[in-house]
Amino acid sequence: MSARQYRVLAVDDNEIHCYSLRKLLAAAGFDVTHAHSGNEALNVFRQHHPDAVLLDVGLGDMDGFEVCSAIRSEPANNNVAVIFHSASGHARSSPMSSDSGADAFLTYPVDSEHLISVIRGCIQRRLDTHGKKSDVAGKSFQAPQE
């Protein structure tokens, strides 16, 4: 049995950076969707049910902490990994960073292999902790064994 392709939602208000993330993650084997604002991220999240969200802290309409809190407010989303990314290390020390429910925080520049490793590790930890994930059709399946 082959492993399922993980879905990642890449959120960044910088379109060039978002494009680069999409290309990098797709080349690593992820099924990638994207958004450029907080509200768009929440809409895409509801439509695509990703396994992980790579979330910029600074977005135009709301910050990444608010987006993460909205995702975490639904118990059905406990199995979704949320990884913050930011060019500023100051956001990491914010009390909101630790209170928002994120799985990891990366400060750019970050090595591509490290980024991919962190995303895969966070997804696997969430699936190991929460066991099953329901797909869009309402069926359940076990976390892939790697």
Describe this structure in words.
This protein is an alpha/beta fold and 146 residues long. The chain has a single domain, classed as Response regulator (Rossmann fold, 3-Layer(aba) Sandwich), CATH 3.40.50. Helix content is 39%, strand content 21%. The protein has 5 helices and 7 strands, in the order βαβαβαβαβαββ. It has helices spanning 15-27, 38-48, 64-72, 95-99, 112-130; strands at residues 7-11, 31-35, 52-56, 81-86, 104-107, 132-134, 140-142. Strands 2-1-3-4-5 form a 5-stranded parallel sheet, sandwiched between helices. α4 (95-99) links the parallel β4 and β5 (104-107). The protein starts with 6 loop residues before the first strand and ends with a strand.
Topology, pairings included?
Layout: E1 7-11, H1 15-27, E2 31-35, H2 38-48, E3 52-56, H3 64-72, E4 81-86, H4 95-99, E5 104-107, H5 112-130, E6 132-134, E7 140-142
Parallel strand pairs: 1-2, 1-3, 3-4, 4-5
Antiparallel strand pairs: 6-7
Helix pairs in contact: 2-3
